TrEMBL record:
PROSITE patterns: GNAT. Gene3D superfamilies: 3.40.630.30. InterPro entries: Acyl_CoA_acyltransferase, Bact_Acetyltransf, GNAT_dom. This is N-acetyltransferase family protein. Pfam families: Acetyltransf_1. Keywords: Acyltransferase, Transferase. Residues 1-156 form the N-acetyltransferase domain. The keyword Transferase applies. PANTHER family: AMINOALKYLPHOSPHONATE N-ACETYLTRANSFERASE-RELATED-RELATED.
Amino acid sequence: MLIRQASLADIPQMSAFLQRLQALGKRTRPADPDFVRDTYITSADKLSCALAEKDGIVLGFQVLIYAKPGNTYDVTPGWGIIGTHVNPDVARQGVGKALFAATRVAAQTYELEKLDATIGEENAEGLGYYAAMGFETYRRKPGVICKCFELTTGAA
Ligand SMILES: CC(C)(COP(=O)(O)OP(=O)(O)OC[C@H]1O[C@@H](n2cnc3c(N)ncnc32)[C@H](O)[C@@H]1OP(=O)(O)O)[C@@H](O)C(=O)NCCC(=O)NCCS
């Protein structure tokens, strides 16, 4: 498995498996190629979009966004906002764990102190994944649970 930054050429595969996650009821946000490009590849607020690939197949990606004042998730400005999407064909095979190792390095490079992950309250796999990565619940909003990772004290 190769971990690298996502590029424009990855958009078709990224969009395709996000649409499969939608069909499985595991995603509510858009998944079309334009959304993928604007949100995960070319967004000015994007700090990193780590992508896992094997033999030309995109296995998953994890985006790290800089929380600006007024951001969609109402995250404290200056934090990072993380989102993780793994191809359902390779779930629970360590892709998410490998992606977070790369994202964590990126967050340290940008000297972020805290990361937010906002997860649907019924998304057991998302909640389990972020808990396993060392994120801790810090607030709840209707329908979602927000978890925080502290880069200064988080587990290696
Ligand atoms: C959540 C998600 C990112 C996990 O990615 P993954 O590649 O399957 O995760 P990994 O295989 O690296 O798992 C790492 C650890 O996370 C936890 N975990 C992963 N999937 C889990 C599940 N279904 N239930 C409980 N814990 C889980 C486990 O502790 C796991 O370690 P283990 O397998 O040694 O027990 C992936 O399932 C996914 O993309 N889901 C759909 C989108 C989503 O919910 N994104 C996150 C919320 S926005």
